[in-house]
Amino acid sequence: MRLCSSTQRRFVYGAASGRVRDRARILVEGGHGGTGCTSFFRLRNGHFGKPCGGPGGAGGDVFIRVAPFGSDLDFSSNAYRGANGSRGGKNNRIGARGKSITVS
Length: 104
What we know:
mainly beta, rod-shaped, 104 residues
């Protein structure tokens, strides 16, 4: 431990220092859903038929797994975001779902 001034101290967290982090501030955000596709069925005579565009895929989720015997709150990053869903397609094709992540 190195003293910076008379009132401030520099603390090193981790197993080597013997101190345990009991608070952590992280940003957790799920992925955005994909955009839908605007498409219309075309008839043989060139006229537009019914709409046939598919919806976008759902955004990815973020799950937080808690260790029952965890020693401290040591995260590898401060921000965790789920992947975005992909765009829908013509002929009522649904977009792919975004990949989910697990924070432990």
